[in-house]
Amino acid sequence: MTASSTRLLRRFSAAAAGLALVAPLASGAQTQDSVDLKLSLILEGIYFNELREGHRDPAGFGGHDHGDDHGHGDGYDEGFNMGHSELVIEGRLGEFMEGVLNLGITDSDLAVEEAYLRTRSLPAGFQIKAGKFFSDVGYINNSHPHSWDFVDRPLVNEYLFGDHGLQEIGVQATWLAPTRTYTRLGLELLQGETSGVANYRGAQDDVEGTARILEDTEGPRLITAFAKFAPDLGVDHALQYGISGGYARRFQETEEHSSRYEDWNGTAWFAGLDAIYKYDAGGNYGHGNWRLQSEYFYRVSDVDRRDVSFDGLTVSNEQSFKNNQDGIYLQGVYGFAPRWEAGLRAEALGLSNEIGRGAGDSLDTSYRYSAMVTFRPIEPVFLRAQLNHNDFAEEDGRERGLDFMLQLNVALGAHGAHRF
Amino acid sequence: MSRHIPGAVLALILLVLLPVTPALAQPLQVVASTPSLGMLARAVGDDQVQVRVLAPADRDPHYLDARPSYMAQLRRADLLLEIGAGLEEGWLPAAVRGAANPAINSGRPGHFRAADHLTLRASITVEGPNLGHVHGEGNPHFNLDPLRMASLAVALGERLGELRPDEAGIIRARAAEVATGLRTHAEALAATVKPGQGFVAYHEDLDYLTEWLPVQGLGYLEPVPGLPPTARHLSALVDGLQGRDGRVLHAVYQPARGGEFLQRHLGWPVHRVSLEPPMDAELEDYLRLMETWVATFERS
Fold first, then answer.
1. What average pLDDT does the segment A305-324 reach?
2. In CATH, which superfamily holds the domain spanning B193-294?
3. Which CATH number fits domain B28-189: 3.40.50.720, 3.40.50.1980, 3.40.718.10, 2.60.120.1440?
């Protein structure tokens, strides 16, 4: 599509929307044209090898079934895996709004990762986004796997939020302040279904006349807020830091034991800090560049528990308790040669790991250390090798494992954005 | 902890918002994606504009990030100047999206896309394998052509005149002056160059030199645009150019190795040139930059 026809199309669609927002442009014949859609396809393959078998579920985080069977980030099969591919379609309705559809594709299912509309013409620095999207809390949460520096999601994002991070259906409003320092404030009203902070099961049928504690709560059930700041540090340095938090007015869990249902019904909240620093050395193909990235999140679930036996005759374990847990990671990536990067990541999950369930327990912290090398022969293609050393706490004791991953990722189609 | 967080947020917000000064009647806030465009805006707009440039002169404008600081600058812009034709595709649309400033949306007077006002050379990226770096609209590196920059100065003068109707006459007159200055200098420099000389460039970013100087491009160090030189391609290049005279030109941010190979095997000089004037450049800086390009060729 030529530039002038694109312009005409935008002009036409804006006019069709009844908006006289578009400025007069050079006149020309109106032409019928295809819709301005951009398409891109991300294809990924992962080779996985467990060099030393270790425990998969860090203490305090894996014991309770979250009702999501997607498998956690390192739930790869030994050998070849399809990984996480994406089909992304973006389109514009003139300058009025734009829409994004992002389909995540694994070998067994096709899921809508994101499907949202975003305004483009609200005044005074406001923007509204509505649909299904990754929340803007923290740093890595709103990014797709192909833009990560490591193969897998940080533990804190995976276990405090969910296998897909904090991914929800809802509305987001943001405001960018007219300041020299980038200052963006945002508020999100979300349906509330993310397993780690807003798990929702809804009311369950009575068991032989005995009511269960789980109750229906209408959405939206989760509200989040975030603020991001980025001073202008000149051409070589860039820094952004953020603070975010959220409150879920319903947080529920349910698990079937051998003879009873265990139900939790309550609320949850979380808060965290994030920071990213980038150094641009001005070398060839990223040579000499640095990136440092860190996030910390703290989560509290505050629930009432009541177990009901399968025959409905026994109600047990009635208690109210809180779980206080957190996680942090710090990673650094260095461009040690043109088109080559190497990175290290250190993670801790459950520095605070206070589980109120039962008699209460203070569990140990789990750690993971990762090292990676990435080669980017041309911009849309990268090949990455990564080693993960898992040092996970169990209910009693620790177990250490070593994983190796080889990732091939190719972006086809429209030029992807170099997001910050 | 929960009680402390709202307080911390409030404190941070206040801290950041405090230095804001109320908007006064002030010059047009212009944000230019590249230093050359910033130079044109300063030359044409003079005291009617305040110009900020996003891309540094010594960085490849294909490969920047959509930095938050760019968004903060675009948020307050009255006018965005971009090259277009895919040059800033990787970062500028994302930065504009993040800026939440409808005044610079495409189609508005506050959005000036240089490629829309010029006829571009065909880009070699549309031939051969698609490696994610395709300029279907044409070669976007026209800032190396002072004749096109002159046409652009006139188009920019029109636009600034629309945005500042009271000053339109003065602005248009100044745009014409800038255009004349660029054309005159280009002609004078072209006359000093011995015709028929050839050069090999790293990327297609120096092609526009052949539009105003009596010189010709003989090839590229990249086997295909976006792909670094390979041994096989360089050998083929050397074989094809054996016995010819010429020189290798490459941008300051491009690797020297491919050029050195040609230097060894053909005896050609290698010139590392700046493609952009400094970020705060005036017209004179651009004219001097033209002279550095011309200095890589023999005088007539």
1. 92
2. Nitrogenase molybdenum iron protein domain (3.40.50.1980)
3. 3.40.50.1980
CB B60 within 8 A of CB B14: no
Question: Does B28-189 match B193-294 in CATH topology?
Answer: yes
Torsion region of A349: left, alpha or beta (phi above 0 gives left; psi -120 to 50 gives alpha): beta
Mutate to test the interface with A, among B52, B78, B89, B105 (most CBs of A within 10 A): B105
Chain B hits for A21, CB-CB cut-off 8 Å, are 102, 108
Q: CB distance from A173 to chain B under 8 Å?
A: no
* Residue A230 to residue B105, Cβ atoms within 8 A: no
Q: What is the model's pLDDT at position A52?
A: 86
Give chain A's count of helices (H) and strands (E).
3, 18
B66 touches chain A (CB under 8 A): yes
Question: Residue B279 has which token pair?
Answer: 């970020």
- What is the C-alpha radius of gyration for chain A, rounded to an integer number of angstroms? 24
Other beta carbons less than 10 A from residue A30's beta carbon:
11
- Give the C-alpha distances (Å, rounded to integers) separating A160 from A28, A71, A242, A270, A323: 55, 15, 18, 9, 12
**Residue in this structure with the two tokens 């170099």, named with its chain if needed:** A418
Quickly list DSSP for B44-109: HHGGGEEEEE-S-TTS-TTS--B-HHHHHHHHT-SEEEE--TTTTTTTHHHHHHHHT-GGGSTTST
**Residue A155 to residue A328: CA distance in whole angstroms:** 8
Paired sense of beta strands B197-201 and B247-251, if any: parallel
Residue A26, pLDDT score? 32
Find the helix or strand (DSSP H, E) in which A309 lies.
Answer: strand A290-309
Higher pLDDT, A92 or B42: B42
A153 touches chain B (CB under 8 A): no
> Domain ranges in chain B?
28-189, 193-294
Per-residue pLDDT, averaged over B218-242, amounts to 90
Task: Render pLDDT for A352-410 as a digit per residue (tens, 0 to 9).
Answer: 999 999 888 999 999 999 999 999 988 889 999 999 999 999 877 888 999 999 999 99
User: A285: closest CA among B280, B202, B144?
Assistant: B202
ipTM of the complex: 0.84
Q: Do A94 and B107 touch (CB under 8 A)?
A: yes
Which of B:250-269 have CB within 8 Å of A? 253-255
pLDDT score, position B7: 64
State the pTM of this model: 0.86
